[in-house]
Design a protein that fits this description.
Elements: H1 3-28, H2 40-61
Helix pairs in contact: 1-2
């Protein structure tokens, strides 16, 4: 297997969690309109960071 592919395979779930957590909370619930999509960038850090912290904690405690 390609080393780049294996590295991306480890990072992809975290990136997906970062983006989807902000998109679900802000866009699907109607807090942010699609016309001001740039407002999503700081919210990705806010909601995504919290989601990654929760994911890390749960994975760490269940091993």
């Amino acid at each position: 297997m390609n080393a780049k592919y294996l590295g991306w395979q480890k990072v992809a779930p975290a990136l997906t969690l970062l983006v989807l957590s902000a998109v679900i909370v802000e866009i699907l619930f109607g807090s942010t309109h699609l016309t001001i999509i740039t407002a999503l960038i700081p919210e990705i850090g806010f909601y995504g960071g919290a989601a990654l912290f929760i994911r890390y904690t749960v994975r760490r405690l269940h091993r």
